[in-house]
């Protein structure tokens, strides 16, 4: 292998590798914080990204209720893009948004959707309402959220946790 071959191989690898934590600008949390009578209750990650659960579960937490999410919480586009798909499946409604450059986001366990495939959305625009996983015995309302880079579905999910620290947050009043 020549040095030119190594340079080409390195360039291809750099161009196609998942960019863990390198999201750039324009991202926002897919679940807004709640305005609870002047007290801001932040959306949090209740279950983190792992190889067996390559997505995040997002909801809220307080001392009185533990993990929870009130009815009607909007699920919002994490970045501007085009709705790639909507689907009602065994685990509730899901939406996939294509953000270009290989980035896609997946929102699952929605109670309903407010968008259609092909629709252009802005970051922070409502996609639907947070729901439950019908197959979950606990029936806890939450958002199952994945970020895909370079593909769709298995094998392309990246952990967005470190990047989310800089993502914009919005506020919702029930």
Domain count: the total is 1
The pLDDT mean sits at 87
CATH class: Mainly Beta
**Percent helix among the residues?**
10-25%
Tally the helices.
Answer: 2
Secondary-structure element sequence? Answer: HEEEEEEEEEEEEEHE
Q: Any idea what the shape is?
A: globular
Architecture, according to CATH? Distorted Sandwich
* Structural class designation: mainly beta
Give your account of this protein's structure:
Strands 3, 4, 5, 6, 7, 8, 9, 10, 11, 12 and 13 form an eleven-stranded antiparallel β-sheet that branches. The protein has a three-stranded mixed β-sheet with strand order 2-1-14, with no helix packed on it. Helices cover 10% and strands 41% of the residues. A hairpin with a 3-residue loop joins strand 4 and strand 5 (66-68). The radius of gyration is 17 Å and the shape is globular. By secondary structure, it is mainly beta. The protein has helices spanning 3-16, 161-164; strands at 33-36, 39-41, 44-47, 56-62, 66-68, 74-76, 81-89, 92-100, 103-113, 120-121, 126-130, 143-149, 157-158, 171-172.
